Protein 1
Amino acid sequence: MKRGLALIAAAGIALFAIAAAGAKSNDTTISGAGSTFVSPLVSTWTPALGEAFGLNVQYSGVGSGAGIAAITNRQVDFGASDAPLSPDQASACKGCVQIPWALSATSIAYNVPGAPVHLNLDGKTISKIFLGQITNWNDAAIKALNKGANLPDLKITPVFRSDGSGTSYNYTDYLSAVNPEWKSKIGVSTQPAFPAGVGARGSGGVAGVVSRTDGAITYVDVAFALKNHIRFAAVRNAAGKFLFPSLRRITAAAAAFTKVPRDNEMHIVNPSKKAALAYPICTYTYIIVPQQTSHAPELRKMIFWALTQGQRPQFTAKLLFAPLPKPVLVASEKTLKSIHS
Amino acid sequence: MLPPGMEAASVPGAAALGQTRRVGDRVGDGILHGLTALAALIGVAIVFAIVWRVADGAWPAVKLFRLHFLWAREWNAPLNKFGARDLIVGTVVTSFGAMLLAAPLSIAIGLFLSELAPPAIRGPVGTLVEMLAAVPSVVVGLWGIFVLAPFDAQHVQPFLGSALGWIPIFAHGQDKVESTVFTAMIVLTMMVIPITSSICRELFIGVPTELEEASIGLGATRWEMVRTVVVPTVRGGVVAAVILGLGRALGEAIAVSQVIGNFIPLKLSIFEPGDTLASRVAGQYQGAITNVQIASLIYLALILLVITFITNVAAQRVVKRFEFQRTGGA
Amino acid sequence: MSEPALSLKATGRSRRRLLTNRGAEVGASAAAAIAVAALLVLIWSVGSRGVSALNWDFFTKGPAVFGEAGGGVAPALVGSLLLVAIATALALPFGVLAAIYVSEFAHPRFGRQVRLWLDVLNGFPSIVIGIFVFALCVKVSLPVVGWGRHQSAIAGGSALAIIMLPLVARATMEVLTLVPNELREASYALGVSKWQTVLRVVLPTSLGGILTGTTLAIARAAGETAPLLFTCAIAGQIVDWNPSHSVQSIPLMIFQNSESPDPNLHAQAWAGAFVLIVFVLVTSLTARFLLDRSRRKLGLQR
């Protein structure tokens, strides 16, 4: 028994020794957490970053809210969020900067057996569905947008993100822009109080519930909908066109906004009539890093690579991430320079 | 303890040897006593540290919302308005509902395995049930999502809805939502049955055979023997087992949040999505957006801690009273 | 008069009693059958769906890049192993020592108190333990290497250790009370001091029981998800043996994959569940075997 105790003690000491060795050795592991929206893209970048710089990027898609919390606590080297930092969050994060590093769209995904492949929706209707005011797929408002389509008598189940999510932010940003009632009742938030439906965690979670529930509708980044073969709707933009999200239409939406504010906070939902080809629910997604960090050289290398090489179609195209427009790229690179150790 | 007359030093002629040994022994005894006492102290200290940490973390929300938190309904992160009522109701409904199903079934399994089943079945099934008690809750939740929830949505809920739909809590719409309070209840039932039934089985087996044989010998049927001898002998233990299962159901976060739908305000019908205290903490704590929300979530954990503490103490009280009765107060 | 003097056919009251008995027996058996059948369905679903998803890649590869099929859960397997090892290394010594204190040293009144509070700890919801350890690992940065300011296998392992501690301690206490007092007295009579008696006589005798308790506690810890949610969830996609890093784990993998829409990930979740259940079954069988052996040993010595 004594020997047993000694063995256990030795094992404990050994573990702590390994821990000490691991913490002291200058490993080039960069840890990040946040947005599930951007996680497919980061997952395709990771092997390339390993080859290019020997960096071991460990990214965990836990949701934008959790990513902001994690970088605020400095649990990770970088956070990622599709929602810009709120003033409170920015001050809590103490010297963090947000850098737009990817651009994509939120799709309105649905699972309605018997519904047409080409389903048209507009902002008003979508907002009323999520307010719980339109509750059936054969509602007159939906029929009016889809003339001649055969819509079933089926209850609508709105599915929303229950965790803190940048996609929710992007989505409620859009709904607030198109429906004043949404703006006054619910507002823009990463964790809005949805008045109806079912909650799920992460992009995968909402996509999962939709794929299993007849009559469900949700908002999810377009890569998740594509990858999991979930249908998504064509959404009417300000110019009155019903459009599916695509690279060209995301780029068109981003092109409608050329001014980048000092804190890089961009809102590109519901662009004006002039952008006739713009998909209305697009968003930049941000990497959030402390200005002063011990991993500054690695982070700068990594982010610069993501902003340049990482935007190439081989990584972005099949996930429907559009390349960053020039003014944003310039602003991002400028902010990147301020990161130091 | 060593009686004084038996110390080594009292053996004549061994005084010198005994002197050194006694010092070594005293040091050794002291060290081991100290070490073990320290370990026990740490074990107890962890309990108080957890309570203190949780109370401390919840304090900003306690100060802000006071006890009003307990019956406020709204949970609105952007407006920083938080209330626990629907989560408390959701927790109580799912757990008590689960126990309402699990308790009779567990007792039935216990009786079956101790009194009714042929001996060849008793052993294997008993072992199986005991092992199922160790199946992780996340596995039960996984099964809940992919096997139970679709079955519930397609068969059980429409059936119950059409049979009992006139009672508001069983009202069932035309929708096929899989994530519901009802599904969570069944998942908890599945999780709890092995735990309570294996305790019940041991309790029933522990009833002295003489008592049972005496009852049968007096002409009682098996059911009368169970009703008049077996159940009264172990009543306290069975109640304690049920409370123990209830405690597990109340605190379960993972399996519940996998199937309940994470939605409040709660609706009247159990065939609608809902949420519980533990499930909400699991879902939102990591991504909470304001300090008030973090504190409110820990406030939820505090409420949960108080509820489970009460159920635990109740279980211990029952066991104690039961032991007291059995031993006649000795 | 051909009517028999005594009829063996129950009538009236006895008939009613027999019918009630029959009804109750059938009812109890049916209820038991339903419950056991439901449990069997659970095991069968996990078994049938899990086995078909098992392959060599499952054990050796990391998760696939987004959008690609295949991949495995090697990082989660390694992570779970690491977490359980850390939890056991922490909980076993503390649990055993605390149990020795209660049954060998403490005044009965203190002993009862320690036992009571350990039971209370055992009843705490595991999610609350997760919050507690999260508060320790984020808010506090202790000078201990690998601890503080970030999630890590050590933090996750500590949370699991808190869950294991009362289980190990209670099991050890129970087996220590089974050690016959004659053994202790014989040792004292030979002039052996108390600490040596405890370490050389009492503990070796109860080793089987302690191992049983530890094995059952390990089975419980290996499947716990809630305490890891905040303490060891932000993890990379590669095999990582470093306990100061956050690692993946099987229960969290199941939890996350179960909610996704991807059938490939569902298959991994089922396979993970199967591996967990097999682990749990093997450990409980081992525990049962150890318990039987140690009971026999104690019985023979009595």
Note: The CA atoms of residues 261 and 331 of chain A lie 9 Å apart.
Protein 2
Amino acid sequence: MIPSSGPHIRSGTRFVGRSVPRREDRGPLTGGSRYIADVKLAGMLEVVFVRSTEAHARIVSVDTSEARAVDGVEAVFTATDLAEVESFPDHIDSIGPVRQRPLATDRVRYVGSPYAAVVATDRYVAEDAAALVAAGTEYEPLPTVADIQQALAPGAPKLYDDWDDNRSVDIAYPRPEADRAFAEADHTFTATYVSQRQTGLPIETRGVVSDIDGGTLTVWTSTQSPHMVRTTIALMLGVPEPQVRVIHPVIGGGFGVKTHIYPEDIVVPWITRRLGRPARWIEDRMESLLASVHARDQRHDVEVAYDGDGTIRAVRCTSTLDLGSGEIFYPGTAPVFATNSCITGAYDLSKVQTRAVAVVTNKTPSGAYRGFGIPESTLVIERVIDRVARLTGTDRAELRRRLLLRPGQTPYVMHAGGRIDSGSHAESFEQALELAAPALKRVRARHAHDPDVRVGVGYANYVEPTSPSYFRTTGHWGGGDAATVRVDPDGSVRVAVGLSAFGQGAETTAAQLAADALGVSPSEVTVVLGDTERAPYGLGSWGSRGAMMLTGSVMLASERLTAKARAIAAHMLEAAESDIVLADGAFHVAGSSQPSISWAQVATAAWIRKVDLPDGMEEGLETSGYYHPEHLEHQPDDTGRFNSAASWSNGAHIGIVSVRLSTGEVSIEDYIVVHDCGTVINPALVEGQIHGGVAQGIAGAMYEHLQYDSDTAYPRFASFMDYLVPTCAEVPRLSVDHRESPAPDQPLGVKGCGEGGTIGPPAVVLGAVSDALSEWGVELTECPVTPVAVRAALRAAGAARGRAEGNP
Amino acid sequence: MTILEPVSEVDVEVTVNGRSHRHRVAARLLLSDYIRDTVGLTGTHLGCEHGYCGACTVIVDGDAVRSCLMLTVQADGAEIRTVEDLAPEGASSLSPMQQSFHDNHALQCGFCTAGILMTLESVDPTDWSEPERIIELLSGNLCRCTGYQNIVAAVAQAWNSEGDV
Amino acid sequence: MKPAPFDYCRPATVVEAVEALGSAESGRVLAGGQSLIPAMNFRLTDVSLLVDIGHVTDLPGVDTEVAGVTVGATATQSRVLNDDDAARVVPGLRAALRHVGHLQIRNRGTVCGSIAHADPAAELPALAVAAGAVIGITGPDGHRTVAASDFFLGPFWTALSDAEVVTEVHFPAAPVGSVTSVDEISRRAGDFAVAGLVAVIEVGDGAVRSARLVGFGVGGAPARLASAEAAMAGWAPDHPDRRLMEAAVEDTADAFDDIHATAWYRREAVATLLVRAARRALANGETS
């Protein structure tokens, strides 16, 4: 049961800090919400994309004649039909240009690459015709590159003929002080850690619907960033931006997958323009696994310099990201930089030298997934600390205590320039340890008499950069966002924001913020978002930026609006402006609540009754605010350092697992989260974000893995039988506790909480299972931790084979 | 009812949420598409079309089924219930389970919610209200947003308070 | 993911169904459709005529007698799972069905359909072999029966010919004093097994008298684990596990690798399940 208000309520706010029930719920509960697949237009055509069945090949020919002859097929388009469409931009000079075409022209670089589009009156018929196009396609296969090692091998087949090799990015950040520390340290070790390929996998796949009316294109798409989609459609189709309207309907989850701008976002509106008819494409699950971005496919080669007392003197880390074919906009390179810059997590470690490499392979393009490189960096540092603890005989928790950032150390500038503004790094860990102690005792007691079971505990302390700059990610967009607040003549409030929403409760949150800022009830606030025609230009929702951007922009716009309203009210009350206060939704002179002027009276004066306005005052009661966080930087300095996040949430995760020795089965028996995202606007929503994030983190730690055949680069997944999204039975009960270290530079102290949950579990599970198997010296270095992986580790460690109910 | 000569289209009569529908449908038309596109009830969602995610779960003759794994012709003569049938008709209120989902923040994006609600609606709570049975029951529906925590809580609350009454 | 076009018919009798199947180029029987329809949605299966036996009236339901349980072709997994009489006579039915899919799948999926489908990772084919079930088949030449041990030929491959329908499966009553267990390791709740074991174990005097053991999710077709059965006869808890496990590993030489597990893991896991089954049977046998 969710508390209706928590410890988070603070004076001066009436709704911020409360678990205000969500206004978004009724639609999904009753079947009334309109998701992308529910957008239906009269005369709408169905589009099906034909996708490469080869991992790497030249397209010799595509015979579309049979498909065109199918009854109900209106058109079949290939790359040549789209010749006048611009390529996706390569905005970033420092990464290899891929010159991505909306449909592949003469070469395909991954299974799933779209190269033709069938348009028919019926989806079933379109699929029939698409099968005929596929059958009529002749390929000339090229040698394939299936993984990082193959991509970097001397003489490897190249994906892009004009590149020197398959490296899209290779940037080292030399740090002489790290080299010196290596020379001075007692000991060093090297290790390699691997995070496997996964995908965010919203249960709703992607989709695009487009319509044309006169010259104006309206595009509904399941995007997290409608304005960015509009800008890109306008650019690529050569249409003036005002003639493109992009709307995101209700969205069935995004998790970063829907931040990218995909070929279908361009081709479907192009088809509508070409044919003059509405069209829609709904991604199916099989193509979604191939056509929506993958993520997390990283290898980390680490060197650590340490002393006998457990002191970690320096770390060198080369992180290599498998980009897949790289054919995605914005490019998928950014997570490896996030990994690099956050490699020290919540710990005070400054002597760090990193190198970021991204390589192209014949796999689905990789890109964003909730956590964006930080689950990977956290995995690395937590494994490093556990290893140092083991090598030096230091208690694992104690070693973390020594390293964690302490009160008074913030703002703390990390090795790569990240400026941790505040936080409760050490305190959160202590709190989690306290919660974990009795749990660990319980779990140990539960299995005390089973010789086939071992119990282990795993730790992760992390920082979560929130509201980051998008400039190094997209090469184009920045990091602020906008809100417009209007009070209509009847006194009702309309808030329009550049944020988007796909389940987080942004509408409810925005209404809470506006209600407090304007002294009204959330139910009086209409929230508008996700429509480029009705909401101000904004970058959408990603990077745990929703809460902070909403707060900053809504408060800024509301302050401006309130200032104007106060002036109007003062005039109407014949009082000095400085004497006017706003309380309970009305303006009055300080000290006497009567007479008072309501928002409706102010708004009526502003919009309609010019005679009630002060002389010379402009009419209208609508203001905008564009919020840009104070310390957010967009470009690195000469040494490659910059603070790319507006604020830094933090948290501690502790997991307690039991491992069945004979089968390698792992069960998470308790999972504790202490989380600090600054000021909490809506505790229920924050807790929900943590829950979902942790579940996705566990998915990556133990279940989900997009595997490719190493000889052919063919995907070894096509369904939910292959890609193991956890069910209710796999996700343990979670204990979540909150702390609040307000962001010092943000209007309400809000930081952001969208991604924190996903960050901890891979590190926690690797650490806990390794701990459980410590008597055999097992140190796991790769996710996912599967029963096979556990058994393989035990066998490699020389443990005798497990017995059903006896010692191994 | 018997059709001996092979046909590619079939006349079906189906009751959906108490309303009778007659259509001539393609033999290959999935029940999920029939409900969404032909009948026009889009509260039933498609998440995988291979019977794993459970988003398309509806009730056919009292049983929860994956509507993506059923042909419309197989539902000929059947009574179907969808999420649109759960809230008391004409009222602004919600069913106790819907209300519990709302109260417990048991949905985020909401895409999987209809399938979960229909699964829950199809069973007798007295057989399923134990905590481990709730988890077993819910394990046929994927949710990607909530980590299932608040869904389990919502179900437990709704069924336990029903039991108390 | 929509099925390719096909023709459809809906016979009222088994004979009509068989005739329809015989007339088609690639006819398929539609019962519950919980394996066939996904395959059709993926366009992995070529079907010219779908013969819907959902309205066939001359099929058995779930008939339980002292000698065993006969399950007709249209009886759903849920119906059998919830049948207390069937569970009493053939406890393996309930034990196996608990692992099959999820509620929504069991509500449509049929026992006979699972057996005809012959997924090597499925529980019911393994149960059929372990329990000594007899598969009833009707085809153009009439009705015939095939022992389960002769029915499964390989992955998704059975003794069924194109124009034949599995009309019923007869599961003989479990031997008095036997303990049937269906145990498996799967990656997620409800998934097909990475490794599984059906064991029908007769116990007496604190030791195993005889065992019928069938692995699933391990090799191509469910088959008795002959060496393990021999090793288990006479086995008692104070005997070493090693002999049982080695025998099981020997019996599973055709284990396969896939994305979920390696062959060696599967063999080792079946061996582990086997010891577990023996210990539990002896523990249960003594309490009962």
Note: Chain B has two domains: 9-85, 96-164.
